[in-house]
């Protein structure tokens, strides 16, 4: 029986182990990146908020920039129709602009919590925010004016929208940062 032994010096062993760890980390990053890209391509962007109780709903609403009473003003259970009429189709288009899709919930009973909004610009009253919740998950919502010539919009406050516009403009066009900031400040006034 012949036995061969190899002597590896410490610096070479350390360099080999470091190289092995780096290759492993690179492989992990590449694999994870491909998995995220694949899931976003096949499923689209998915927004998911868990709102199982009043404190979680209040915190969510506050983060959107709205001020509401400590408790909802109305609560009801609504069944999403199995087939959408024109009104539901139009409403679902608004939901899709926010990352939601009510078509997934056709025939399901959902909870709707309605709150009186206290800080809508240029409207002191008759503004409501509604959250649609299924199994503790936010599936849609809107802010609307209940006056005769009312309107409906997504959940973001107009101030939050303007801040988001300004941030995305600054990030996307670093050459004209000062112009975009001035423009967004004008929009919010």
Structure description:
The chain has 2 domains: 9-44; 54-156. It has a 5-stranded antiparallel sheet with strand order 1-2-3-4-5, with no helix packed on it. It is an alpha+beta fold and 189 residues long. It has helices spanning 10-43, 54-63, 86-97, 158-172, 177-188; strands at residues 74-79, 109-116, 127-134, 137-145, 152-153. The protein is 44% helix and 17% strand.
Secondary-structure blueprint:
Layout lengths: L9 H34 L10 H10 L10 E6 L6 H12 L11 E8 L10 E8 L2 E9 L6 E2 L4 H15 L4 H12 L1
- State the distance separating the first and last CA atoms: 89 Å
**SS elements, strand count:** 5
Q: What share of residues is helical?
A: 40-55%
SS field, number of helical segments: 5
Strand content: 15-25%
Spell out the key features of this protein:
disordered C terminus; 189 residues; 5 helices; five-stranded antiparallel beta sheet; alpha+beta; 2 domains
Question: What's the quick description here?
Answer:
The termini are far apart.
């Amino acid at each position: 029986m012949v036995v061969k032994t190899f002597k590896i010096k410490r610096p070479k062993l350390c360099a080999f182990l470091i190289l092995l760890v780096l290759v492993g980390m690179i492989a992990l990053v590449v694999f994870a990146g491909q998995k995220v890209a694949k899931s976003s391509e096949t499923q689209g962007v998915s927004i998911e908020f868990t709102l199982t109780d009043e404190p979680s709903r209040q915190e969510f609403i506050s983060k959107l920039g709205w001020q509401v009473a400590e408790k909802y003003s109305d609560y009801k259970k609504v069944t999403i129709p199995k087939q959408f009429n024109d009104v539901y189709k139009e409403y679902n288009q608004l939901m899709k602009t926010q990352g939601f899709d009510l078509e997934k919930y056709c025939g399901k009973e959902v909870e709707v919590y309605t709150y009186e909004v206290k800080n809508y610009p240029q409207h002191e009253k008759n503004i409501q925010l509604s959250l649609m919740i299924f199994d503790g998950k936010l599936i849609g919502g809107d802010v609307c004016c209940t006056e005769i010539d009312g309107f409906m919009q997504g959940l973001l406050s107009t101030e939050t929208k303007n801040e988001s516009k300004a941030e995305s403009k600054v990030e996307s066009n670093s050459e004209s940062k000062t112009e975009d900031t001035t423009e967004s400040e004008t929009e919010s006034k």
